[in-house]
Amino acid sequence: MTKIDRLLQRWRFAKAARFIPKGARVLDVGSDDGAMFEYLGDRIGSGLGVDHGVESVPSKGRWRVIAGTFPDDVPDGRFDVITALAVLEHIPNDSLASFRDACIERLVPGGRFIATVPSPAVDRILHVLERLKLIHGMALHEHHGFEATSTPSVFSAPELRLKRARRFQLGLNHLFVFERPADASLTSRSAGRS
Length: 194
Description:
This protein is of the alpha/beta class. It is built from five helices and eight strands; from the N terminus they run αβαββββαβααββ. It has helices at about 5-15, 35-40, 95-105, 120-130, 150-155; strands at about 25-30, 45-50, 55-60, 65, 80-85, 105-120, 160-170, 175-180. A hairpin with a 4-residue loop joins strand 7 and strand 8. It is globular, with a radius of gyration of 16 Å. The termini are far apart. Residues about 140-145 and about 185-194 have low confidence and may be disordered.
């Protein structure tokens, strides 16, 4: 990663960190080398990162990163927070609903799903920066033009409610915070399927 990659990454971390409660059990989808856990430090109770593009990272105290995909390779367990920072634009449109349902299933009641999603226009900027070797351009070839503004309609469900939507990075990136209702009588979509 270049300095610009790290700067943009830390900017996403800072936006998400505001919504991660102290002591939370965090699952970071697309975690790369676990940099978000390094950023959060002792603020979290524990962290598990999963990324299909990296080798597993040795445990570092409260957190570890495994090679694989979500939800298939993530051990059973529930989390207070699931983050997907700059990830949704890599997931094919026809897989987003199942990704959402897996997040709902893995969140504790009252848990949060936090996503950052760049506007499709960012891809053109990133490709130029990549050609100039100013950024590494992590998996740009996987971007499929996901429209960030459709995130609320894709991810809102009775079991996952939008709590915050904001633009940042000069309006080119979006932060979305969803929450699984704490109402224990609400069941997830997958629990209703047999």
